[in-house]
């Protein structure tokens, strides 16, 4: 829906009015399959020569509306909806790489992605190599091999909020002919559109801000439409091979949208990570208010970061743009705000984190982000709990780190709850200090 504003497109893009009843809201098409008109119609649908659908595993009308809406908001040409953000990452990479291939990433990634890289994807024979998030353009270009199939990054890294220079990675992609794949979950298309910086593929966990209400799990993959798959034919022969029965290759038939066509009609069809259309119904309702929620999420997050900055129990606040050397990049890439994850480093380490989290009344302790509710978690003992101390230290995950996903409640109420729990940390610290000094005095009296 070119020419219309983001706020309009988040409500209307991709929407259909159902032919039977004229329902204005996109219905839940809760049907496994779709009736053929005739024997020959079935043949045509299976051969992909008919625009009409056959089966909901990869082609459900409710899911198609949401996929097209997210693709529109991202400035891409097409999208595919899947069952979770993890499935989106797995499918997006499966459509690019096979055993023996190489993928470059930044060294700051969501831990679920790192787990998949270390686990399932490595067992399938993919090789991963991480470059520092601040590596320069020549370092990225030099790291590209003939077997490199993707450069993978997050627009805002979870949980510490480091921001990679997407414009730089876009230039690396253009120079090397390797597609840039960006997980844009934490920024959302309202705050950042990686396609504008040269990304070929954009991934979302729709479970987070897109859905926004913490009610559904889902994922999306957007085809940016700007990558030249023909020039990169040597890296992606599967997009250029003739199809069964002499049908043209994906590149010939779909051109700029060859990637999403292959993803939908081969990779997702074969693996089957289908999201229920009932979940997508809730996702669509979430997307309709994305801009409104993001404005509030960002304003609340900035206020929380400011308020906690000076609390004596807090050693450091992590919010994009506040780390050394990142301010210019964040202002350039995220002019409308840098998301709503605020992580705090408690000076008192793990014990302080326990007291803080157990002292929260309004804020929920749980593993999720992008909810209208404010949520908090000690990542070192949960999300990053399988890592050893050295690995955690290397990722900047300290003993006192608490990730806060700031919600859309009244900010004064959020800050008040966080502050009363931080005050409890100080009080507990004083109690411990008093006990220690009493013990020391006893020790001095009765050595
Ligand atoms: C949560 C998350 C995922 C995984 O999404 P699920 O929907 O939980 O499978 C991927 N990337 C990022 C950045 C996330 O925050």
Automatic annotation (TrEMBL):
It comes from the Bacteria. One of its GO terms (cellular component) is cytoplasm. Its cofactor is pyridoxal 5'-phosphate. InterPro entries: Cys/Met-Metab_PyrdxlP-dep_enz, OAc-hSer/O-AcSer_sulfhydrylase, PyrdxlP-dep_Trfase, PyrdxlP-dep_Trfase_major, PyrdxlP-dep_Trfase_small. It holds the Pfam family Cys_Met_Meta_PP. The modification N6-(pyridoxal phosphate)lysine is found at residue 208. Keywords: Lyase, Pyridoxal phosphate, Transferase. Its EC number is 4.4.1.2. It catalyses: L-homocysteine + H2O = 2-oxobutanoate + hydrogen sulfide + NH4(+) + H(+); L-methionine + H2O = methanethiol + 2-oxobutanoate + NH4(+). One of its GO terms (biological process) is cysteine biosynthetic process from serine. Belongs to the trans-sulfuration enzymes family. This is homocysteine desulfhydrase. It comes from Agrococcus jenensis.
């Amino acid at each position: 829906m070119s020419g219309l504003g983001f706020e309009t497109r988040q409500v209307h893009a991709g929407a259909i009015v159902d032919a039977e009843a004229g329902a204005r809201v996109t219905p839940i098409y809760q049907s496994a399959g779709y009736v053929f008109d005739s024997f020959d119609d079935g043949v045509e649908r299976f051969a992909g020569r008919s625009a009409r659908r056959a089966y909901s595993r990869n082609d459900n009308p409710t899911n198609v509306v949401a996929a097209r809406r997210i693709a529109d908001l991202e400035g891409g040409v097409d999208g595919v909806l899947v069952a979770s953000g993890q499935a989106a990452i797995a499918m997006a990479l499966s459509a690019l790489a096979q055993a023996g291939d190489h993928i470059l990433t930044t060294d700051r990634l969501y831990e679920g992605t790192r787990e998949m890289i270390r686990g399932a994807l490595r067992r399938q024979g993919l090789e991963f190599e991480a470059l520092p998030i601040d590596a320069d353009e020549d370092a990225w270009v030099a790291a590209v091999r003939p077997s490199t199939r993707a450069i993978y990054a997050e627009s805002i890294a979870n949980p510490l909020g480091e921001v990679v220079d997407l414009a730089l990675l876009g230039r690396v992609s253009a120079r090397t002919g390797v597609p840039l794949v960006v997980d844009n979950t934490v920024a959302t298309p309202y705050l950042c559109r990686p396609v504008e910086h040269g990304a070929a593929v954009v991934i979302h966990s729709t479970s987070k801000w897109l859905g926004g209400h913490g009610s559904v799990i889902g994922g999306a993959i957007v085809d940016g439409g700007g990558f030249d798959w023909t020039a990169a034919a040597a890296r992606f022969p599967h997009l250029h091979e003739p199809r069964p029965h002499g049908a043209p290759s994906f590149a010939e038939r779909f051109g700029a949208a060859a990637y999403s066509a292959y993803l939908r009609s081969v990779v997702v069809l074969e693996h089957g990570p289908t999201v229920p259309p009932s979940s997508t119904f809730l996702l669509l309702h979430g997307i309709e208010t994305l801009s409104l929620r993001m404005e509030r999420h960002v304003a609340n997050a900035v206020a929380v970061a400011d308020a906690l900055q000076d609390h004596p129990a807090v050693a450091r606040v992590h919010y994009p743009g506040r780390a050394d050397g990142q301010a210019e990049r964040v202002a350039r890439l995220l002019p409308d705000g840098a998301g709503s994850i605020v992580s705090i480093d408690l000076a008192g380490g793990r014990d302080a984190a326990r007291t803080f989290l157990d002292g929260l009344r309004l804020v929920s302790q749980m593993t999720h982000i992008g909810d209208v509710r404010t949520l908090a978690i000690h990542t070192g003992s949960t999300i990053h709990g399988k890592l050893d101390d050295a690995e955690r230290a290397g990722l900047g995950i300290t003993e006192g780190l608490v990730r806060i996903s700031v919600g859309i409640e009244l900010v004064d109420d959020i800050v008040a709850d966080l502050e009363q729990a931080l005050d409890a940390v100080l009080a507990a610290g004083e109690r411990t200090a008093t006990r220690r000094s009493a013990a020391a005095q006893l020790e001095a009296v009765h050595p």
